[in-house]
Amino acid sequence: MFVRKKEGETIGSLLYRFSKKVQQSGILKEAKKRRFFKRSQNRNKRKLAAMYREERMKEVVKNKKMGLVKEKRPFSR
Predict the structure, then answer these.
(1) Count of domains in the chain?
(2) Are 43 and 26 within one domain?
(3) What is the pTM of this model?
(4) Fewest CB atoms within 10 A around its CB: which of 9, 18, 19, 43?
(5) DSSP assignments along 1-66, one per residue
């Protein structure tokens, strides 16, 4: 997308015309829509990730009970 400067036109009005063209074309709308698009994972991959998180949490809780890991305190002095 491009806009040519008219004779005697200020930079501000040129930018205004350019931004209007971009908005009318829908480029920004499409870019914002795709910005946070995330492909869906297959079921097996989701299950494996959940199992891994669960096992990891069990290990952390076990280590805390045994005193191997100190609990982090927010705003400790």
Answers:
(1) 2
(2) no
(3) 0.44
(4) 43
(5) ---PPPTT--HHHHHHHHHHHHHHHTHHHHHHHHHT--PPPPHHHHHHHHHHHHHHHHHHHHHHHH
The CA distance from 65 to 31, in Å, is 48
- Report yes or no: 59 and 65 within 8 Å, Cβ to Cβ: no
Residue 25 CA, chain-centre distance (Å), reads 24
In this structure, what token pair is assigned to residue 59? Answer: 């290990």
Residue-number span of the structural domain to which 64 is assigned: 39-69
Compute CA 59 distance to the chain's CA centroid, rounded to the nearest angstrom: 30
